[in-house]
Amino acid sequence: MSAISLPTLLGDLGPLWLVSPVKPILALLPFLPWAWAISTHLEKDADRLLLGRNKWNAIHMSAGILAVLSVLFVPIFWIGWPLAMVLLFTPVFVYVSVRNQKSDKQWEPLNFQKHLGDDGNKEERKLLKELRYQFLDAQGVPASIPEAESEAFQIMASASELPFGVLVRGATRVELLVTEAGTVGTSVVNGLREQLDPMPAKMGLKIREFYCGLAGLDAADLRRQQYGKFGLQGQAGKTNVSMFLSGTKKGLHLRLEFDMARRLKRDWHELGLTASQVDSFEGHFDLGAQGGFVLLSAPPLQGLSTLSYGFLGRHDAYLQNVRALERQPLITLDGVDMIEYDAEEYTEGYSRHLTAVLRRDPDVVMVDPIDDDKVTVRTLLETDEPPVVYLPLRAGSLGESLQKFMTLAGGDAKAAVKNLKYVVHQRLVRRPCSECSVPLNATPELLQKLGLSEEEGAGLVKGLGQIEVKPGRFETCDRCQGSGFSGVTGVLEVLKVTDEIRSHLANKDLKAALVAARREGKISLQEAAVKAAGEGRTTIEEISRAFAPARKAAPANQEASA
User: Fold this and answer.
1) What is the C-alpha to C-alpha distance for residues 164 and 176, in angstroms, rounded to an integer?
2) pTM of the model
């Protein structure tokens, strides 16, 4: 047997070295966190900070291609692989440096002590697990956690439990009323008010003071209404909380609104208008459209603010001069001048500030709800050529909103309707849960009863509240917590005020005005709700509940809750 030289042996081992399983794994692994970080964090962050998402995507993609080429074509792997890592991650760190100059919230990817935590934070992390949420103050800074077993920690735990119990069920609002007898409260879940478990007055006061500290409000100031914000950070992400504080004759009132800005910013086409109702507004939002009053109404807790902002936001604020004068602006709209009523400068009242706004010749104006504001209504009626003015008003029906408006106008029906263009009334109905709803195979008899064609009734659904996990085995739906509903949608009734209808209203003949509107194609609120059910936006059962005859009022000696 001939001897084998060392160079020959190494040459034979070369192919085995090239197919080593370690190298492909080592080459592939860094690309996974790189792709995850870019797709889930960097791309969204660049878009939010307006840093040029497409530009940075192109840079990262080019770096990835160069890194792959380096791994594949540099002959020596232990030179090509480190070079590929430099090419791959250098743009990432460059981006972090650039975005940190644009944002107050700094990213520190190499701060391992921050990511892994130190011994001093272990106890705080342990306590944080006992809380439903981590609280963030008005500036977004996490609130410090008191020592375990302390009274301050028990208050924080109770303040954390209160919103958790309703947020998991989709609540949008919590109200508390603290009295000497105790603390009572309600929550609003899918548009319906529900009672909360009562608590002692002392605990209610402590929770109120805790929330005030987070929002930067003065808990001792009981004379004026206050408004602030704070945040909740939980497993499902961050929830923004808007807090309204006031003192009443009954006690101390506290209202928490969850993610209010997101809920109020609804596109006009998402409000729930039918196709024929949309057509009735043709030309209304155009530049140079005829001015006049648009009366927007809804019962309490039925989305009046969302309706108002939806109509205001439909105007092109970059072509038109669009303004809103509110005692407490709740959101901002792109291009719209959201003005807060200045009580110190306009001591005569809100109507004086409104007069100043109207003198600047706006194209569109939205005013604060006019529920009991006769002075504001009469100020507007005295305007010879008003712009488009949106007048929010709380009322139980379209007819009631018209009657209230005429009453606020001093009973002068002719003057009230002279510049009236539209009356829009809204009710909210619950949406079927998207996880557990199933198609409703409607019979021809049911479709005929509803006034829907087979095509219009194709979207009818029913929320079960349960999900079939196995054949014959059902579990409560996590999304709707067994209710079969998740969220709300609007159904609307629109009255376009034509010359004939205006004449009837001027003569205080509301019935004749509504008959004329029916001849011109107006649909009722119930008919709009049925159409919404046919589109799958609500259910027949929900329509029956929402439009059921009102129950008799409770005896006067029964005290209402918050």
Assistant:
1) 15
2) 0.73
